[in-house]
Amino acid sequence: MRSTRTVRLAVASCAVGALLAACGTPRATPTTPPRPSGPPTTYVAVGGSDSVGDGTGDPLLDAWPQQFFRRSLPQAAVLVNAAVPGSTVAAALGDQAPLAASSHATVVTVWLVSADLLGGTPPATYGAELLRLLSALRSGGATTVLVGNVPPLDQLPGYPACRDGAADTGRSLRCPAELPAPATLAATTAAYDQVIAADAARSGSVLVDLHDAVPSSAAHGGAPFLTPSGTDLSTAGSTLVARTFGAALPTAASHTA
Fold this sequence. Notes:
Layout: H1 2-24, E1 42-47, H2 49-52, H3 59-62, H4 64-72, E2 78-81, H5 89-102, E3 107-111, H6 114-119, H7 123-138, E4 144-148, H8 158-163, H9 182-203, E5 206-208, H10 210-219, H11 235-248
Helix pairs in contact: 4-11, 5-7, 7-9, 10-11
């Protein structure tokens, strides 16, 4: 009897154990990966020499689009630096804008002023071409476009140094062949800034005010904005530009969204 009872208890225990094991083991069901919270961020930088990183210590790390990318966009974002040294807005319409379109950019930065301004492109012509560029990049509103204006060039160290003839004193300045008078340069800068602001508003782009950010930084003891050449952004200058663009980035497109 004892033996039979022992066998029966053992069988019952096994049955209970099997039932508990079955209850504790979930049935295998097909799983799907979690959906991303939004579309992936593809960032395209449209610009000239400043956006390539000429003058910085390490262009691959210090160019301002690289710094903006690391500081202000999600970790999973992708950067396409379409900038071409010396590019004008008209040139960017032909090569950089198509690259942004084919990359399906969701965020685009545009800073293209030096080549046109120093090359003598009239503000009205520049404004018409910039509006075409911004409108093409906006892709019907699907892309966040940030466009930078012109810092006060007459207030940067390179300009007065060139005006004073420092290029002939052994310094490594690169001065334009024809340097405009201070009043002329200030007026041209103001005209460019006016059309940039108007184009940003008309195209639905975000205006990035470098005209105020640069002298404000210098007034508070900021590091030199330009390299000793007087024409290239320094690493510190690139950092300032990146931070200014980042501060203007709409929250929905930033890493904090």
